[in-house]
Amino acid sequence: MKVCIVGASGKLGRYMVQHALDRGYEVVGVCREKSVGKLEEFKGRITIIKGATDDREVIEKAVAGCDGVLTVLVPWGVHNYSSGTAQAVLDYAPPGARLVFSCGWHISRDGKDVYPRKLKLIVGVLGPIARLFRVADIGDQVEACRRVFASDAQWTVVRGSDLKEGESQGLPVWSRHVGDPILRSNMTHRIDFALFMVESLENDELVQEAPAIVGCLTPSALEHAETVGE
Ligand SMILES: NC(=O)c1ccc[n+]([C@@H]2O[C@H](COP(=O)([O-])OP(=O)(O)OC[C@H]3O[C@@H](n4cnc5c(N)ncnc54)[C@H](OP(=O)(O)O)[C@@H]3O)[C@@H](O)[C@H]2O)c1
């Protein structure tokens, strides 16, 4: 299995590189030139393609021959970075490749998510402020995901809860809609978000799904497991 990790030098990206290497996958990582040093620990074990993740030539080269592409979608800046990245991956990934994208709970596939007040505040108040100061554009991350949802590709959009650092607790659990009781705890260790992304590559049940995830040892996940007798 050859996989490309777009946004490999970020926190989520580096965890995904490690999980992919642990599985014996061949890894190609894309990251900004100034961030190559953040991948030093993987030197000699992965191929690095330097450049902006929305640079279509960079992505075309990076995804060539890949069976899977893991893409970190981030809303930074106001120049359509997220949608440009998603579009390039959709356009250049080999037909049939598994495409897995990361985002947050704020992305809704069908409008049926019920959001916690804190998240509504962040998106509704901080989102416009970030856009005003040209720091980030959450709307562009929404647009990126809209394009993925509309595509016929073998995609999965993994929607992360609030994140924290810490040791792995195991594969997160998921549900189709934020607001479902299993997700109430709203916390996942970042290393396990990455695990879910990498595991999705070989999970056909997640094709054309937008799972919202939460840590498998959080109170809400454990309560749910008890209820269904797992
Ligand atoms: N943070 C949260 O609480 C949270 C919650 C839910 C979901 N998520 C999702 O999780 C994923 C990873 O997020 P994260 O917060 O953990 O961050 P992260 O893994 O550290 O990733 C940040 C990415 O953004 C890139 N980046 C940073 N500044 C940039 C800029 N100005 N222009 C272009 N690229 C820039 C970084 O590249 P460099 O290495 O080159 O800097 C890196 O690839 C995202 O899809 C996010 O939507 C995050």
Fold and architecture overview:
This protein has one domain: NAD(P)-binding Rossmann-like Domain (Rossmann fold). The model has no long low-confidence stretch (mean pLDDT 96). With 230 residues, the protein is an alpha/beta fold. Helix 1 links the parallel strand 1 (2-6) and strand 2 (26-31). Helix 1 packs across helix 6, helix 2 (56-63) packs across helix 3 and helix 3 (81-92) runs parallel beside helix 5 (138-150). Helices cover 35% and strands 19% of the residues. NADP nicotinamide-adenine-dinucleotide phosphate binds next to helix 1 and strand 5. NADP nicotinamide-adenine-dinucleotide phosphate binds at residues 7, 9-13, 31-32, 35, 38, 72-74, 76-77, 81, 102-104, 160, 162-163, 190.
In short:
By secondary structure, this protein is α/β, with parallel strands linked by helices. It contains 7 helices and 10 strands.
Mean pLDDT: 96
- What would the principal axes of the Cα set say about the shape? globular
Strand content: 15-25%
Rg over CA atoms: 17 Å
CATH homologous superfamily title: NAD(P)-binding Rossmann-like Domain
Counting helices, strands and paired strands, the structural category is alpha/beta
Number of domains: 1
Q: How do the helices and strands follow one another from N- to C-terminus?
A: EHEEHEHEHHEEEEHEH
How is the quaternary structure best described?
single chain
> What is the CATH fold-level name?
Rossmann fold
Number of helices: 7
End-to-end gap: 32 Å
Strand arrangement, largest sheet?
Answer: 3-2-1-4-5-6
Pick out the low-confidence regions. Answer: none
Bound ions, cofactors and other small molecules, one mention each: NADP nicotinamide-adenine-dinucleotide phosphate
CATH architecture: 3-Layer(aba) Sandwich
Highest CATH level, the class: Alpha Beta
Q: Mind describing the biggest β-sheet? A: 6 strands, parallel
> How much helicity do the residues have?
25-40%
